């Protein structure tokens, strides 16, 4: 059994397994694609340490395991990847810094905290910019996105590939949220919402009248448990696989931002690798990113259903309610569009439009 399926079974739950009805509760997950291609030449051995924020059952971890399997198989075990989940080695910001100094080989952050390296990435943080997954994928596969990856050059980080973190949804422990007015709060202080470390996200929640506070992902569960924050926003799959439902009773399908992930390697590690290994690492990153997007897609609705089954009260917003949110965050565009660049936004919107024509 491959590591990927071991993890899937963990997700399906030990109780299910003991009854012998494997996968009964798991989404209809795609098998990892077969690993194709010859074993490359012998250019020595590398052990790559990769730190990620999410749990072993997440699409991010499962696809990273596929990345590891590709490298291991195609180098006859000469390249191995050790994956450290659950922010064990640090948060997104810290792990990117560790890549710069060479104290960590690989990491897999959201694009949002990486805007300190490549400002253009902030375009992904604009609310309601990418209306559907097809558009998001078209953007992530575009030359514009490749230019953003190339923008890391010289920073100490080599960015390998975009994949899907996903559409972010609001959860909280206080009350159902159906409209921007609810976010502004019935009580005086409004809801305290944890955001990623990114100024556009802060601006979104401030504009909605909430009380945003940036925080590392690894600290979030206990902050919610202790009531330091009322809520947070993340894709359903993250809310499920990080067990946020244990401390958050309410969810709202706001889909306010689509966030990509970026798989990264330290430039120091990269430069130590033979060109043939570099080519393989780049290819494996693209293949695992494709698989990650597929898994993330499969997890999305399934995770929401699982959360409902586990007792989370989830509000699905209708078009009118989403439009109200969209209108309420217009000031975020007014503030950030000139800083991010009107030309870049237009470039993205053009890709979005052509993706809906195809
Ligand atoms: O590995 C990625 C995670 O660390 C993080 O980026 C997840 O979306 C995320 C968040 O809210 O911090």
Automatic annotation (TrEMBL):
Determine if Secreted is one of this entry's keywords. Answer: no
Sorted alphabetically, the keyword list is: Signal, Transport
Q: What is any Pfam family matched here?
A: DctP
| Subcellular compartments | Cell envelope
Extent of the signal sequence:
1-24
Q: Known NCBIfam families for this protein?
A: dctP, TRAP_S1
The UniProt entry's sequence similarity note says:
Belongs to the bacterial solute-binding protein 7 family.
Q: What is its main location?
A: other
Q: What is this protein called?
A: TRAP transporter substrate-binding protein
Instruction: Tell me if Repeat is a UniProt keyword of this record.
Output: no
